[in-house]
Amino acid sequence: MSVMVDRPTQQLRTVRVHRPPRRPERPRLYAIDGLRLVAALMVAVHHYAGSWRVDQPGNAVWGRPVSEAMPTVFHVAAYGWIGVEIFFVISGFVICMSCWGRTPRQFFVSRVIRLYPAYWFGIVFTTVFVVVMPGVWHRLKVRDILLNLTMLQSGSGVDSVDGVYWTLWSELRFYLLFMAVVATGLTYRKVVIFACVWGAAAMLAPVADFRLLTLAANPDGAWFFIAGLALYLMHRFGQDLLLWGILAMAWLMGQRELGIRIDDFEHVSGWRGCTALFTVFLLAMVAIALGATDRIRWRWLVTAGSLTYPLYLIHYVAGTTLINRLDGTMDPRLLVASVIAGFLVLSLLVHRFVERPLAGLLKQGLDTSFARLRNAQT
């Protein structure tokens, strides 16, 4: 029997379990930053050259099926939508890692300053694009655009300024659920219990036709986040049969969700190919979690990782509008590559001149507000 030091947020206690001690802290996981960029590029290429929408005759982006314009690119890009599920797994891993040892207040502040600055820019940027270059996308009513600034439009039944923002609704529900664990102090045991309870709720709520629980449990995305949680526990405490079991369950449930999404939304890719990609990605994450990529310390990957969120937020509506305007001026493959390159440059500018300054101001303001709340007598 060995001793594992399990560090909750609020106190230190010793738990005796049949497993090895917690591993020492490792340096920054640069490989995850690289995977983030790969996932973002997969999604962007899919939206431009591999989605069902752009493969329809007379579509508003290309005006013709993209599979006729560049068939090879289309057949590869058709699988790029799985980058969203990759984001969800990475989010489960990174959120658990960044929240360890933090208070709920710190967790809340970190999420606000991470999500909102680039998101607000994305809303303004996309709205201006739709107004200046109409014809591809319909502009929302002003009141709906203003509601979008809250990031809660999906919960209010209002369309998003950009369709890709639907993933943020899944992220927010994950944060809300995980906040309950953060509030009690993160430990190995609590995260495992949380993952199991959440997984059970995600399975049972739709069958029971319990709409509120289904909304909270987010069965469409739950198992991808749960996979990320299990992978981080492997990284922090080492592998064991229980964590492998959770990860295997996440893979089994995840491959089913991939199939459902293909049937209901994507239509252009096969289940076998998507499942193979998902499996390869999970194996790559296992390698990261177990330390196989610790030697990768290329600092440019940090910059690459910082581009992914702005790129995801601004690429879709504006990018497809640009393609519509520029189609015919160059080879379609070169056009897609040029648009993506342009948005990567813009994403770097957004990160440096929007995200960083606004995040600093928001953090300072929120820290001051919480200090005042804590010290208030009445």
Automatic annotation (TrEMBL):
<dbReference type="Pfam" id="PF01757">
    <property type="entry name" value="Acyl_transf_3"/>
</dbReference>
<feature type="transmembrane region" description="Helical">
    <location>
        <begin position="270"/>
        <end position="293"/>
    </location>
</feature>
<feature type="transmembrane region" description="Helical">
    <location>
        <begin position="191"/>
        <end position="208"/>
    </location>
</feature>
<keyword id="KW-1133">Transmembrane helix</keyword>
<feature type="transmembrane region" description="Helical">
    <location>
        <begin position="164"/>
        <end position="184"/>
    </location>
</feature>
<feature type="transmembrane region" description="Helical">
    <location>
        <begin position="118"/>
        <end position="137"/>
    </location>
</feature>
<dbReference type="InterPro" id="IPR050879">
    <property type="entry name" value="Acyltransferase_3"/>
</dbReference>
<keyword id="KW-0472">Membrane</keyword>
<feature type="transmembrane region" description="Helical">
    <location>
        <begin position="241"/>
        <end position="258"/>
    </location>
</feature>
<keyword id="KW-0012">Acyltransferase</keyword>
<feature type="transmembrane region" description="Helical">
    <location>
        <begin position="335"/>
        <end position="354"/>
    </location>
</feature>
<dbReference type="GO" id="GO:0016746">
    <property type="term" value="F:acyltransferase activity"/>
</dbReference>
<feature type="transmembrane region" description="Helical">
    <location>
        <begin position="214"/>
        <end position="234"/>
    </location>
</feature>
<feature type="domain" description="Acyltransferase 3">
    <location>
        <begin position="30"/>
        <end position="351"/>
    </location>
</feature>
<feature type="transmembrane region" description="Helical">
    <location>
        <begin position="69"/>
        <end position="97"/>
    </location>
</feature>
<protein>
    <submittedName>
        <fullName>Acyltransferase</fullName>
    </submittedName>
</protein>
<feature type="transmembrane region" description="Helical">
    <location>
        <begin position="300"/>
        <end position="323"/>
    </location>
</feature>
<keyword id="KW-0808">Transferase</keyword>
<dbReference type="InterPro" id="IPR002656">
    <property type="entry name" value="Acyl_transf_3_dom"/>
</dbReference>
<keyword id="KW-0812">Transmembrane</keyword>
